[in-house]
Amino acid sequence: MRVKGQTAIITGGASGIGAESAVFLAKEGANIVLVDLNSCAKTIGKIRSTNADAQVLECLGDIRDAEFVKATVARASDTFGELHILVNNAGTCGRLSIEDMTMDVWDRDLDTNVKAAFLFIQAVVYPHMMEQKYGRIINISSISGINGGVSSGEGDSSRRSGPAYSASKGAIIALTKWVAKELGEQGITCNSVAPGATATGITSGVAYDLSKQVVKRMGTPGDIAEAVLYFASPESSYATGQVLQVDGGYNFG
Ligand SMILES: NC(=O)c1ccc[n+]([C@@H]2O[C@H](COP(=O)([O-])OP(=O)(O)OC[C@H]3O[C@@H](n4cnc5c(N)ncnc54)[C@H](O)[C@@H]3O)[C@@H](O)[C@H]2O)c1
């Protein structure tokens, strides 16, 4: 049990990568705080079937709301005490072109994928992780934040992850490095996992060109959760400011 007795907050815990990360962390003994707009009942069921003793707190609301973030972190701390792990995972992905982009979609993607992550970092680090002199922050970015958007389907550029999404995922990578530099001396690491095409709600109905990958299959949420678990564990203390691409070797060959 690599994170036994530790507490992990996971945003976007109702489905996909967040749900699987919660299951992996619970299996390794962590108390889990699931945050999402939607019910996390399915995730809770899966957690209990893996670890019947797992302690789970569900916090439903919109992570773009600063007051909700503060209240969630306070509830987590009141329930479990010290907070050790933060997985900023919840995300939205607009696929509109430059021409069609609306400010609603732009703001939604930037606020969910970057602002909310910052709000959680701020609330969890000060005072919790700073007082403990220990913390593991994992931000889920994307290879879209590195390469400018993943093409999904021949000649179908409108289905590429959009400009707001790419910008937000590039920003979360920069934020990861900034936070890592700021907090390294306090025993707090901050790393990012950058998934490639992974079979979840966000990619449902999108046909990816797997010929660009060395490993010619879609990723599973478990593929990504393995990397989250590494950065969440005490053993990763010498790794910070890193971006681990888990993408089947996209554009590598
Ligand atoms: N699936 C992929 O191919 C892929 C690739 C690269 C990066 N990612 C990233 O992985 C992360 C997880 O996505 P996923 O693939 O599991 O998709 P998903 O749609 O299954 O999960 C996203 C979750 O975030 C929640 N959420 C969205 N906005 C929210 C808000 N404002 N407040 C609270 N909860 C909110 C949703 O309700 C949902 O449960 C995202 O950051 C996404 O950008 C996914």
Largest sheet: 7 strands, parallel
* Total domain modules: 1
CATH homologous superfamily heading: NAD(P)-binding Rossmann-like Domain
Shape: globular
What small ligands are held by the chains?
Answer: nicotinamide-adenine-dinucleotide
Radius of gyration: 17 Å
Oligomer: single chain
- Which class do the helix and strand fractions yield? alpha/beta
Tell me the distance between the termini: 37 Å
Order of helices and strands: EHEHEHEHEHHEHE
Secondary structure: helix percent: 40-55%
Q: CATH class, please?
A: Alpha Beta
Under CATH, the topology can be stated as Rossmann fold
Main-sheet strand order equals 3-2-1-4-5-6-7
The total strand number stands at: 7
What is the correct CATH architecture?
Answer: 3-Layer(aba) Sandwich
In DSSP terms (H or I, runs of 4 or more residues), the helix count works out at 7
- The parts where pLDDT drops under 50 for at least 5 residues are none
Mean pLDDT: 95
Hey, roughly how much beta strand do the residues contain?
15-25%
